[in-house]
Amino acid sequence: MSSSNDNSYTPPAAMPDHLIRYSTFRQFQVFEAIYRLGSFTRAAEELFLTQPTVSMQIKKLSEAIGLPLFEHVGRSIEPTEAGKELYTACRNMFETLSNLEMKISDMKGLKRGRLRMGVVTTATYLAPELLGEFSKIYPGIDLSLKVTNRESIIRRIRANEDDLYIMGQAPEGEFEVESFTFALNPLVVMAPRNHPLVGKKNISLAEIAKEPLIVREPGSGIRVAMFKAFEKVGVQPTIRMELGNNEAIKHAIAGGLGLSVLSLHTLSLEGTEGPVAILDVEGFPILRNWYVVHPKGKELSLVAQTFLDFVISSEMKIRKRMQKMWPKLESILQENQESAKKKKVVKK
Ligand code: PGA
User: Fold this and answer.
1) Across the chain, which distance is largest between two alpha carbons, in Å?
2) Which of 82, 284, 305, 323 fits a 20 to 30 Å CA distance from 135?
3) CA of 207 to the centre of ligand 1 (A)
4) Which of 222, 264, 292, when mutated, tests ligand 1's pocket best, judged by the most ligand atoms within 8 Å of its CB?
5) What letters, b where the CB count within 10 A reaches 16 and e where it falls short, cover 261-285?
6) Ligand 1, atom 9: nearest CA belongs to which residue?
7) Closest protein CA for atom 7 of ligand 1
8) How many angstroms separate the CA atoms of 187 and 246, rounded?
9) Least-confidence region, from 75-84, 92-101, 150-159
10) Residue 327 and residue 64: Cα distance in Å, rounded?
11) What CA–CA distances, in Å, run from 290 to 143, 173, 184, 263, 334?
12) What residue ranges line ligand 1, CB within 6 angstroms?
């Protein structure tokens, strides 16, 4: 190896100086996705990017290469000769890098290990996907996932039964924890698609209180948040039924048994245009967050620490997924930010 003090050192002739300077791994990743999926739109979806970003990345990459990478044939796109060559190079490059990633995780001791997670019921719509993505990077790690309601999760934290927990609100008062927020958890009022309130603007909670409601079981964090919202405006909800399971509640809503307050995440598979609709109710969505939690002072295993970092770094990805599911969310967040700013100014 040449020493960095050796002034006579010159880079080997094979060093792709031009590409190193003018292209990025992200551009190669975007290119690879378009090539594989045959579409700019689908690549943008897969990578959680906007279409203009994808087009811009490809434009920059083809400028760096000096040749077009795709051509339009009718309504579809085809790779050019240069595109085909680049694709082969990308595959080799990514394979080399993922081998490197595996070797590094072996060196860090992440080849084998165990991660025990405890998550609140509603995090079922989030945690398995995160674990799935994590285990693609660290396939040798055994995973266990305990799903139960908030009260039982708090008991498990106290008894130190798992490595990490995912909750809608960190425990307060009883004992000290470290908590890290990583995603939004908006609570919304849901109704069957054919309900007369669907499409109505700014419905009052008093009006919702007259409708039969389906609520989660005692011990559920969502149940507590829902009752607090009614209490805040001084109205008493009409409870028709109690159910300990989010999926069962959605079916009960669709079956016309009543309305309910659930996390937006519960619609992650069917989306917001399915049999269950979101109502526009004053004070909603309640903007809660998701937290990864562990008891204060607990020494995390290497696996747990790596998963914690991974979850925190997934924030943007989860937010984009939610925006896609419910495009209105972004404008709600903006309005909220603006009114929070105004409140600050008034206080001054
Ligand atoms: P739960 O908790 O599933 O127990 O209702 C979710 C939350 O606290 O947001």
Assistant:
1) 84
2) 323
3) 25
4) 222
5) bbbbbbbbeeebeeebbbbbbeebb
6) 168
7) 168
8) 12
9) 92-101
10) 35
11) 20, 19, 6, 11, 19
12) 120-122, 149-150, 167-169, 185, 216, 220-222, 288
What token pair was written down for 221? 């964090």
Mutate to test the pocket of ligand 1, among 245, 263, 266, 291 (most ligand atoms within 8 A of CB): 263
Whose structure tokens read 């269950």?
A: 276
The pLDDT of 110-138, averaged and rounded, is 92
- Can you tell me which residue has the tokens 């028709």? 240
d(CA 337, CA 348): 17
Confidence grade of residue 99 (pLDDT, cut at 50, 70, 90): confident
Residue 1 pLDDT more than 50? no
Q: Identify whether the C-beta of residue 211 lies closer than 8 Å to the C-beta of residue 258.
A: yes
Tokens of 249: 């509640």
